[in-house]
Amino acid sequence: MYLSVVIPCFNEERALPRLHDALAAVLSEVGRECEVILVDDGSTDGTLIEARRLAFADRRVRYLALSRNFGKEAAVLAGLRDARGERVAIMDADLQHPPELLSRMLALMDSGCDQVVARRSREGDPLLRSLLSRMYYRALNALTDIGVQDGAGDFRVLSRRAVDAVLSLDERNRFSKGLFGWIGFDTATVPFRGVPRSIGRSKWSLGKLVNYGIDGLVSFNSKPLRLSVYLGLLVAVLAGCYMAFVVVHTLVNGVRVPGYTTLLVAVAGLGGLHLLFLGVLGEYLGRIYVETKRRPHFLVKESGGGLAPTHAQRL
Ligand code: UDP
Ligand code: MG
Fold first, then answer.
1. Structure pTM?
2. In angstroms, what is the span from residue 91 Cα to ligand 2's centroid?
3. Residues lining ligand 2 (ion), CB within 5 A?
């Protein structure tokens, strides 16, 4: 098997036929043994029916249906575990990742890379959004040392050994951009112009994005904890200096009661800092909790396709 294409799908019944048409053309061009793995991530619409239909009509298509919505990261993992190809491509179902780009990515892999990442330019994005995400990736790269590129998303092709490396990382909390960065290997980048989603709706809300951002920051190391140590030290030193000043001042000038503002600022400021770093601690604790339960990442309720029925008509 030369290539597996893993596609996580959540409520994509309308996108799948078009995706299949586009992909089928590209795969025929590749001209070697390929498979497409549709992972239905607990969709509530007809995605599974559509996946069954495509698998029936095209024997290159296989599908897995998860028992409920486990999230995109889990769906991708399910697909990766199932993929048999020497190379594995991961792409979204919503046609925001142009299948035509695949041939260029495969060609780049021939030059010996283990990962080829399609990097979406932020041209045409709302200004605020692109500014925020640029800032976020700056912070992420400063705080972790995995080197995640802004816009380098989940459209990528991996070699077999890169896939095996990703699969060997068994953590429950999967921030995949970070995992792909963590495994290393030679990585090439292909730029592409992002297009707005034409079918269906994005599953990302602002709240989800913020949570995803926090995941990225705390999933990879304990630098935020280190930061809290430094900040604590700084505050302690400042407080010590101020204390010395107040003691001397009182000894020289006697007791003066005012100081309400200082008190209020100190209590409120320190209270805020405490809560913030309790939160940071909690983030790590929560992750330990989830990891220790060692629950499976996902459950599969149905799979099929890939058989070679003699009457198979290719679409
Ligand atoms: N997706 C998924 N499970 C989810 C959410 C999304 O498998 O819980 C899939 C979705 O079907 C799509 C891809 O992940 O193929 C990217 O989702 P979306 O287009 O909503 O994200 P965006 O492109 O807006 O970042
Ligand atoms: Mg999308």
1. 0.81
2. 10
3. 92, 94, 96
Interhelix angle for 206-219 vs 127-143, to 10°? 20
Q: List the one residue out of 218, 212, 262, 216 whose CA is nearest residue 238.
A: 262
Q: Ligand 1 center to residue 72 CA distance, Å?
A: 6
How much is the ipTM here? 0.94
Residues 6+ apart with CB under 8 A from 117: 149, 152, 153, 155, 156, 180, 187, 188, 189, 190
Contacts of 135 (CB under 8 A, 6+ apart): none
Predicted local distance difference test score (pLDDT) of residue 135? 84
**Which pair of structure tokens corresponds to residue 27?**
């795969």
Tokens 């909690």 belong to residue: 282
CA 182 – ligand 1 centroid, Å: 22
The residue assigned the tokens 């799908």 is 9
Contact 117, 33 (CB under 8 A): no
Q: What is the spatial distance between Cα 16 and Cα 258, in angstroms, rounded to a whole number?
A: 70
- Given this model, what pLDDT does residue 270 score? 84
Neighbours of 309 (CB within 10 A): 9
Ligand 1 proximity of 155 Cβ (cutoff 6 Å)? no
Low-confidence ranges of the chain (pLDDT < 70): 124, 151, 307-315
Category of 242 on φ-ψ map: left (φ > 0), alpha (ψ -120 to 50) or beta: alpha
Helix 160-168 × helix 72-82 angle, to 10°: 130
CA angle 136, 176, 123 (to 5 degrees): 45
Buried b (16+ CB within 10 A) or exposed e, 121-155: ebeeeeeeebeebeebbeebeebbebebebbbbbb
Quote the pLDDT of residue 267. Answer: 86
Mutate to test the pocket of ligand 1, among 7, 9, 10 (most ligand atoms within 8 A of CB): 10
Strands 300-305 and 61-66, by their bridges, are antiparallel
